[in-house]
Amino acid sequence: MKPLMQPARTGDGRNVLPELGTLSGEGAQQRVTRLDAGHPEQRVAAGPEPVPAEAASYYGQPVLKEPVWRWYIPAYFYVGGVSGAAAVLGAAADLLGRDGTRALSRRCRLIAAGGAGASAALLIADLGRPSRFLNMLRVFRPTSPMNVGTWILSGFGAATAAAAGAALLPGGRGRDRAGDLAAAAAGLCGLGLTGYTGVLIANTAVPLWQGTRRALPVLFSSSGAAAAAALLELFPPGDRSELVVRRFGVLAQATELAMTAVLEAEAGVVPRVARPLRTGFSGTLWRAGQLLSLSSLALSLSARRPLRRIAGACGTAGAIALRFAIYQAGRRSARDPLATFEQQRRGHGAADVISRQPALDRALGEKGAEAPATSTLHEPGSAHP
Amino acid sequence: MPGNLPRDYQLTAGEAQALEARAGRQEAGPQQMGFFTDSTLCIGCKACEVACKQWNQLPDDGFRLTAMSYDNTGHLGASTWRHVAFVEREERLPGQGSPRDGVEAGARAFGPLRPSGQPGTTSLLADQVDPSHIATPVALGPTERAMGKFSWLLLSDVCKHCERAGCLEACPTGAIIRTEFGSVYVQPDVCNGCGYCVSACPFGVVDRREDDGRAWKCTLCYDRLEGGMVPACAKACPTASIQFGPIDELRQRAARRVEQLHSRGVPEARLYGESAASQPGTAGLRAFFLICDEPEVYNLPPDPVVPTKKIADSWWAMAAGIAGLGLAAAGAVLSARRRMT
What is the pTM of this model? Predict the structure, then answer.
C-alpha cells in the first residue's frame, strides 16, 4: 500500500507518518504516552470548589495550574526541616555545650546527614527528568528560592557528611576540630534549610501560599525544630542532654502552634483563600496536625519517660500532618478560581506591593514619581470612578 | 458593579513613566515583538489552535467533549498553546443581538450594491421594505426571546510573555530564557521538570506534561521568528483578531481600536495588560488583549502579580524565623549547661 493511502495514525496524537514528514517542530520532542484530557489534570483528591452562580468565572474552571509535585515534596519539607534543625541544635551543642552534650551532638550529626541524603533523593525523585538534576546547579539565581535552596542543600549535604564522618570515623584532635567546623557550617546551612521551603512555596501564584507568605517560613522553621526535638524524644541520645532537647522542643512547639494560628489569620484576610484550611480533607488534616502538636506539647512537659516518648510520636505525626495539610490546602486553593479572583479584587494581588512603591521610587531616587493617590487604590467594595 | 479593576490604578503620568522605565522598554531594541488579541474580532473558528498544533507538531487533546459551550480544548497546557474561550452570556452585546439585527445589518450593507437601472434588487430583501419591519417567516417564540438576550464573548488565549515573567524568575535551572524578540522561551533540552514554573505562573499557562516530564508553553513561534515569519496562529487567524508585530506599534493600534469601539457604542471595550501602568504586577504583557467584560469572565486574573514581587516579605520573615531558631538552640544548650556540669 502506498504511504498516502495508509491511515495516518501513529498513536502519539500527531499523526505524522515518518515516511512523509519529519518531526522537527518546537513541540515535536514532547513525549506522549497518553493523550491530554480536555480539563486541567486534577492532581488533588478533592472535588471542585463550589462556585456560586452569580460569581463571574469561566465555567468554574481553575485559573491557575495546580502544583505538579507529588508526595515527595511535602515529605521533603518534613525531612529537610528535621535535618536542618537537628544540625542547628547539634552545632549549638558543639559550640556551647560542655561534655554533657557529646551524645546529643553525635545524634544530631547523624540525623542531619541522613536527612540531607534522604532530602536529595526525594527531590530528585520528584523531577520530571531526574537524570538532569544537576541542571539545578547550572546557575545561581537569587530570584528563584528553589535555586537558592538547592545551593543551600548542596552545602548542607557536604557539611553534614563531613561532620557525620568525623563523628563516626576514628581519629585524633585534628579530626575533632575539622568535625566541629563542619558541624558549625552545617548548622548555618541548616538554618537556611528549615526556612527556605516556606519561601519557596510562598513564591508561587497559589493564593493560599502567596497570601500567607510571611507566616510560612517561620512556621516551617519552627515546625522543623519541633519535629527534630520530637525525633530526639523518640530516640533519646541517652546522656545528660535531656534537658536541652526538652527546652528546645517546648520552645519550638509553642512557636509552631502560635504560627499555625498566625498563618490562619494571615490567610483569613480573604475568606475564600482560607477555605481549604477550614473545610474538607485538607482542613481536617490541618486541625489534626494542630491537635497532635498541642498534645505533644502538653505531654512533653511531663518528666515521665513513657509519656515523653508518646509526646515525641505525637510531635512527629503533627509536623508531618501540618506539611501535608499546607500542601493539600494550597493545591485546593489553586484549583479554586474564586480564591484567586477574590484575593486580587480585595487588593491582595499586585495592589498591595504597588501601593508600597512610592517609597521604593523615592529610595531609588527616580524623578517624576510623585506621591500617588494610593489611598483610593483597591479599596474593597468601593465603586470605581 | 465590582470595583478594583486593574485599570483602576490611578497613576499620574510621572508614575506611569517610572513604571515603564523600570520595565526596561526604553532600552529595548527595535525587535521587541508581541501579540495583540482583539476579542471583538474573534469568531471562534479555532484556526489558531489548529495552526499552532500543526506547526509545532504538538499532540492532539484526545478529542473529548468538555460540555463547556463549544470549548472542547478546555485550557492552555503543555500541548495546547492557543485556547479559544467561548463565554456564553445572557446579555446583549452592542452590535450583536437577535437574528433580526443581522437582517438589518445585511440590508444596510447590501443596499448600495443594488445594480443601477434595474427595477428590483439582487438582494432577497425587497427594497420597499423597511428592514426594521421584517417579520421572520416563522415566529421563533422562546428561542428568539432567548437569543435577544444572548451573546458570545470569544477570546483566543495564549501565553502572555510577561515583561516580568513568574516562570522565568522562578526557574531554578535557567531553562526559561528571554529571547531577542522579548518572548519567554522554555529550552526543552535544559528543563529538568521541577515544576516550579507551573505554580509560579499567575495565569496558569505553563504546564508539565506528566508522560514527558518537562514544562511546555507557547514559544511565540521562536523558530518562525528566527526565519522572519509571523507566528502560526497570527498567520492563520482569518479575522485579524490575532495581530502580531512590534510591541509599540501594537499598543498604538490597540489604543486606536478601543477608541473606535467606544465611539461605535461599545463602552465595555478595554485593554488587558497592555502596559506596565495598567498591570504593574507583571510590568505589562507582550501578548495583551482587548476584552469586553470583566477579566474573570475570560478566566483572566483581575490583578495578576509575578510572585517574586512579593517575596522580599517572605525572605525577611524567614530571616526573623531562623534567627529565632538559632537563638532557641543556643539558649536551650546554655540554660541547661549549669544543670549538666
Answer: 0.85
